[in-house]
Amino acid sequence: MNRIGWIDYGKVIGIYLVVLAHTNLFIPLKDGIYTFLMPVFFFISGYLFSFSRNPSYKDFTKKRFRQLIVPYIWINIITYLFWLILGRHFGDDAGGNIPWYDPLISALFGNGTKLVHDIPIWFLVCLFIVENLFYLLFKGIKRFWIGLALFIIIAYLNYTFNPYLLPYSFNTAIVAMIFYIFGYMMKEKQFFRKFNLLYIVMALGIVILVSTMNGRVAMYKNYYNNYFLFLLGGLAGIIFIANICLYLSSWFGDIHWIKYLAKNTIIISGFHLMTFSFIKGVMVYVLCIPLTVLEEKVGVNILFSIVSMVLCIPLIFIINKYCPFIVGRRIK
C-alpha cells in the first residue's frame, strides 16, 4: 500500500496531541484537544481501510489481531510490570490502594477506565472491535450514509439509556463507528484532495465553540456530555486536522522523520507515559525542579511533550530492530 502523505502528517500531529493532552496542560486547551482527538484517529483508520485489499474476513481479522491485539498484550505486560515495580510506589500513584491484580483484570476485559498502568492503549482493542463490526456489517453495502445515520441513532440510544460500560470498550466502539464510517466515505468520495483555508478557519471556530460549551469529553469512558455537540466537535476537528495536514503535505512534501513517526504511533502511544515518569524523575531527583512548574503551563508542557516524543525514538529503534513482535511485526 502506498502511503498517503497528508495521513502521515495527521498521525504525527494526532499522536503529539495525545502526548500533550496527557500532561498537566491548561484545562481549556486540554478540553479543546479532547473534543476531536480520538475521532481523528478513528477517521484516519476508516479512511485507510479497503475491502479490495482485504477480500477475506478471516485473513483480515488475523492480520488486525496481530497488528492491534498482539501489541495490546505485550504493551500491557511491559507497562504493568513497570507500574508494579516502580509506578505505584512513586509519583501520582504513590500511596494508592489499588490492588496489584486490578490492572490485570481491566486489561483482560479491555476496560480502559481502570488501566492505571497505561490508559491510552484502550484504543487498540476498541479499534479492533470497530474494524470487525465495519467489515461484517458493511461488506457489499453501497449506501454507507444509511449505516452512518443508523449508528448515530444507535450510539445515541446506547449513550442515553445504557449506564454500564461493556467489556472491550464496546460502548465506545459504537460511537467510534460513526467516525470510522465517515473516514471510509470521504476516501471513497475523494473529498480530501486539496486544503481549503475557509474550512480550516470555520472548523477551528466550531471546535473552540463546542469545547467551550461542552467541556471535557472522554471516549475511553464513553462520556460525551452533550452527545450531538460531541459529534459536531469531532467532525469539525477532523475537517480542521485534515485540511491542516493537506496544507503541510503540499508545502513540505514527504519528510522521512514524519513517515518514521507515523509508522510507529502505537509505540509512542503505549510507552510515552513511561517516558513521563523518567522525565519527572530527572526533574525532581537530578535537577531539583518541582513538578509544580508543569501545572497548566502551556509552553512548559509543549516542551515536556516534545522531550517525551524524542525519548520514544530510542524505544522505537530497539523494538523494531530487536523485538518487533511487541508491535505485531515479524523479525526481518
Write up this protein.
The protein is an all-alpha fold. It has one domain. It is built from twelve helices and no strands. The chain has helices at residues 5-21, 27-48, 57-87, 102-108, 122-138, 144-161, 170-188, 197-214, 227-252, 256-263, 265-286, 298-322. Helix 3 packs antiparallel against helix 5 (122-138) and helix 8 (197-214) runs antiparallel to helix 9 (227-252).
Q: What proportion of the residues form beta strands (DSSP E)?
A: under 5%
> What integer is the average pLDDT?
93
| SS element count, helices | 12
Q: Summarize the helix and strand pattern as letters.
A: HHHHHHHHHHHH
In total, how many domains does the architecture comprise? 1
Approximate helicity band: 55-70%
Structural class: mainly alpha
Task: Write a concise keyword list for the protein shown above.
single chain, 332 residues, mainly alpha, 69% helix
Task: Write a brief caption for the model.
The chain is mainly alpha-helical. It has one domain.
Note the topology.
Layout: H1 5-21, H2 27-48, H3 57-87, H4 102-108, H5 122-138, H6 144-161, H7 170-188, H8 197-214, H9 227-252, H10 256-263, H11 265-286, H12 298-322
Helix pairs in contact: 1-2, 1-9, 1-10, 1-11, 2-7, 2-8, 2-9, 3-5, 3-11, 5-7, 6-7, 8-9, 11-12
